[in-house]
Specification:
Blueprint: H1 2-8, H2 22-26, H3 29-32, H4 37-56, E1 62-67, E2 73-77, H5 94-100, H6 123-129, E3 131-140, E4 143-150, E5 153-154, E6 159-163, E7 168-175, H7 187-200, E8 205-210, E9 217-222, H8 227-234, E10 246-252, E11 255-263, E12 270-275, E13 278-279, H9 285-304, H10 317-321, E14 324-331, E15 337-338, E16 344-345, H11 348-368, H12 370-403, E17 424-429, H13 431-440, E18 446-451, H14 463-468, H15 473-479, E19 496-500, H16 505-521, H17 523-527, E20 531-534, E21 539-543, E22 546-550, H18 553-563, E23 572-576, H19 585-593, E24 600-602, H20 608-619, H21 624-633
Parallel strand pairs: 1-8, 12-14, 17-18, 17-19, 19-20
Antiparallel strand pairs: 1-2, 2-7, 3-4, 3-7, 4-5, 4-6, 8-9, 10-11, 11-14, 12-13, 15-16, 20-24, 21-22, 21-23
Helix pairs in contact: 4-6, 9-11, 11-12, 13-19, 16-20
């Protein structure tokens, strides 16, 4: 009884006061999102963001980021340099204040930075708190100043170590292995992130260097065209329908808007919005203003020049955005972010600014470039006809469902549990594997939907063909959450959607087709973490009644090593599975479906731009980008089965 009282008691002694940067080390996820690879990369982003803020203020034009062999990182800029004099309130060097006290920086108010991104003044101190070691050198006012830190605390005073006529800041830090699961940086993802930053800040040079390989990798990112170059890059795997990117810009007070847009002959909308270099993945007022403006402008233009008759309906927003690639970049002094992930812009005045600037500038462009206007309008009208055909197909599907005794696909073996938060559906390649999965599953929480044959490649198809496709309609109906703009995750009938296909070329193709479909027509399904890939084993290694499963050659070798077995022993056997259909229901359950023992891979959408590029490259019409990608990455392939 006394033990229970001790556990449940609540008094003054249990109130913790975390001083200085202790709170950051105690709850790092609150400041950088997670301690996974994503959080690790956020450390670099915060220091680079400080340098970019210097560039936005007109005081810096070059940033260098170096990943060293020990996974420490150095960020160097040629900005003004962090102030080093005594802080009037704290009584210590401002350099130390910036790196050891939360919410200390030049971004609160209208002084040093009129526009900024990052964590608004807490970036440097958070990076310091989560680093095993950090060293900052400042070139300013003729001197070189330096201070060293360890896990957030200064270990040396701010000292002068030399004289110089240069200016800028150099920060070197090594992430703390006590905090992070892994401190090995992904250089490719760094290139992607800082390429984006270079596009958004035309003229700035960001040089990335990876010293870890034998031959260091150097990537220089510099785009004088800014977001015009960004749109050209995004459309590089697509066939555009007009040559030049449409660019408009405008400002009011201290708010600046830039929009670049270009249409391609595809069917997907790719519009990316940013506020102060921060990707607003949930949209916001700037995106709303953009969509309202282009819908109005194209309808007004279409009616003025009789593309649409008086009796016809207006083009919808979907119609005018089909095949559109666009970048919207806003720079503003006081951004207001909303949404769970703080990636939705809420400033009401920005909607009006974007709408007014785009309406005026885009209308002028169409008047001055009638040939481009005609090409775009013809595409919009074709999209409208396809949308109407899709609507009729959708209504027909609903009518059929209402007349059926069951609205679910005939091949679906549903689960008995009705609470979507605990259920999962396996989309299984082939009737044979589907049969084994149905027998081996946990019928209470697991549903099975077998698919047969290749489905439609939606990258090359409009939405009307999607509704007509007999391979995709069972998936749409089974998930129950709609499609396209109507997709609603709150109506989803299963929490996990698990793609289960053979570990061969055909299986890989089916996975890619399904993922393309989910990304293009059910993107929130991927964004909110509902999609998984089943990982069936490739091998069974057994000796007598003792058997083990392996997912690759390395695991096979590990089994031999740990058991003391040798391949040449006659009583040691290895079976290579050619497909899911070779497994009996018990084996499929044990290796691939049992939540306690299986391996499944969550599909995460860390970067929508990279995802769009991948799907366009591999599933689009253009052959050259595929050839180029294969040529560049062939040396990296380690296992063709995956």
């Amino acid at each position: 009884m006394s033990d229970i009282n001790n556990v449940n008691s609540y008094d003054e002694s249990q109130i913790q006061v975390l001083e200085g940067l202790e709170a950051v080390r105690k709850r790092p996820g609150m400041y950088i999102g997670s301690t996974s690879l994503r959080g690790l990369h956020h450390l670099v982003y915060e220091i680079v963001a400080n340098s970019v803020d210097e560039a936005l203020a007109g005081r810096c034009d070059e940033i260098r980021v170096i990943v060293h062999k020990d996974n420490s990182v150095t960020v160097i800029d040629n900005g003004t340099g962090i102030p080093v004099g005594a802080h009037p309130k704290m009584g210590i060097s401002t350099l130390e204040v910036v790196h050891t006290i939360l919410h200390a920086g030049g971004k609160f108010g209208t002084g040093a930075y009129s526009v900024s991104g990052g964590l608004h003044g807490v970036g440097a101190s958070v990076v310091n708190a989560l680093s095993e070691s950090m060293e900052v050198e400042v070139k300013r006012e003729g001197h070189i100043y330096r201070q060293k830190y360890s896990r957030g605390a200064p270990v040396t005073p701010v000292e002068i170590i030399g004289e110089t006529e240069d200016h800028g800041t150099k920060s070197t830090f090594k992430p703390d292995t006590q905090i992070f699961e892994d401190i090995c940086f992904d250089f490719e993802s760094m290139i992607t992130r800082y390429r984006e930053m270079a596009f958004l800040n035309r003229g700035i040079k960001i040089n990335l260097i990876d010293e870890r390989p034998e031959e260091p990798i150097i990537k220089n990112l510099h785009y004088e065209g800014g977001i015009i170059s960004f749109v050209e890059y995004l459309n590089k795997t697509k066939d555009t329908i007009h040559d030049k990117v449409i660019f408009v810009e405008g400002s009011k007070d201290a708010n600046i808007v830039e929009v670049a847009m270009q249409y391609n002959d595809g069917y997907n909308e790719n519009v990316f919005s940013y506020a102060n270099n921060i990707a607003t993945t949930e949209g916001g007022t700037h995106l709303t203003g953009f969509r309202t403006a282009i819908t109005k402008v194209f309808n007004d233009y279409a009616r003025k020049y009789n593309f649409i008759k008086e009796s016809d309906k207006n083009l919808s927003g979907e119609d005018v955005r089909e095949g559109l690639t666009a970048v919207i970049s806003i720079k503003l002094p006081e951004p207001q972010f909303e949404g769970q992930t703080k990636t939705k812009l809420g400033n009401s005045e920005i909607r009006t600014l974007v709408e007014n600037v785009l309406t005026e500038e885009l209308s002028s462009f169409l008047e001055e470039n009638p040939s481009v206007g005609k090409i775009i309008l013809e595409k919009c009208l074709t999209a409208a006809r396809a949308r109407e055909a899709a609507r009729k197909a959708r209504e027909l599907t609903r009518r059929k469902s209402a007349l059926d005794t069951s609205t679910l696909p005939g091949k679906l073996a549903d689960c008995s549990e009705k609470d979507p938060s605990v259920t999962e559906i396996f989309i299984v390649e082939g009737d044979s594997a589907g049969g084994s999965a149905k027998q081996g599953r946990d019928r209470r929480i697991q549903a099975i939907l077998p698919l047969w044959g290749k489905m439609l490649n939606v990258e090359k198809s409009r939405i009307d063909r999607v509704f007509d496709n007999e391979k995709l309609s069972p998936v749409i109906i089974a998930l129950g959450a709609g499609i396209g703009d109507e997709f609603d995750t709150s109506k989803l009938r299963y929490d996990k959607v698990i793609i289960m296909a053979d570990a061969d070329v055909d299986g890989s193709h089916i996975r890619m087709l399904l993922l393309t479909f989910f990304f293009r027509y059910m993107r929130p399904l991927v964004e909110k973490g509902h999609v998984y890939i089943a990982m069936p084993p490739l091998f069974k290694v057994y000796k007598g009644k003792e058997e083990y499963y392996a997912y690759d050659d390395r695991q096979v070798e590990k089994i031999y090593r740990e058991k003391g077995w040798r391949k040449e022993d006659q009583n040691v056997n290895i079976q290579r599975y050619k497909g899911l259909g070779e497994m009996n229901p018990d084996q499929l359950w044990e290796t691939t479906m049992n939540p306690e023992t299986r391996s499944i891979m969550k599909v995460e959408l860390d970067d929508a731009i990279t995802a769009d590029e991948v799907f366009s490259t591999f599933m689009g019409d253009k052959v050259e980008p595929r050839k180029e990608y294969i040529h560049l990455h062939a040396k990296d392939v380690t296992n063709l089965d995956f």
